[in-house]
Amino acid sequence: MTRILVIRLGALGDFVLSFGPFAAIRAHHPQAEITLLTTSPFAAVARQAPWFDRVELDERPSWWDVPALWRLRRQMRGFDFVYDLQTSARSSRYFLLAGRPPWSGIASGCAFPHANPARAAMHTLERQREQLEIAGVTAFPPPDLSWLDGNVGSDLQSPFALLVPGAAPHRPAKRWPAERFAALAIRLHREGIIPVVLGTASEAPLAAIVRKRCPAARDLTGRTSIAEIAGLARRATLAVGNDTGPMHLIAAVGCPSAVLFSADSDPALTSPRGPGGKWPIVLRVPDLADLTVERVAAALSEGH
After folding, report:
1. pTM of the shown model
2. What is the pLDDT of residue 63?
3. Residues linked to residue 86 through DSSP beta bridges, in sequence order
């Protein structure tokens, strides 16, 4: 049996943007045993997915941690082909650890290099599609995400909207002020739409700011798995959030979404994308503190 290794480590937004490539690889190798090498936050959802037979965890060991590197070497050996969708600074060393098998990616000396000099200026979806085409993958079926569903907030009555006020804590410039999310929640509530705040447990203080001004808002921070976010998104009327992982997942399952960007990230490279590659509403300003609630509300109104 042909053994295939796919490498995709994280973060959540990057992982979600690889759903299409995952589906394409499985379609190209329908009889192969496909293993995903990923990190622990994505192990559970990867094991649910229809694209992989096995999931291996990469602890991202330091290069001087010899025992851990030997464990990783054992995990990566014995494959007939490797699709490196991570394409990071670690790629060339991983190529060597794996024993230099037939490899799609950017590793020095690999058989199917994605050598397009413009690759860094491409959106992740188009970049990975081109990489796979170079390796002979030519069919890109829409990824079936029906398996990605979780039951949370079953008592929520429609219509409701998802608000995602968090983002990477080390990149505060990616966050629209929580007070603006609170003002938007008030507007939504007046229109008969229940605001629902999502995020990690560490982002609960942002939800508290929203609920202080809009007590009708629901706080689900720290209470949703990846599958449960997807389940909520399928039922939601709309979603508004910063450039952060949950918004990628929300858009991927088809929820009408508005994603807010500052100069700190470029939507041309990393924006969430919906089914069929559809773009969400993208609002980008140099400083999110200058983005008004009125502009966001107007964009939602025009977009839907």
Report:
1. 0.94
2. 87
3. none
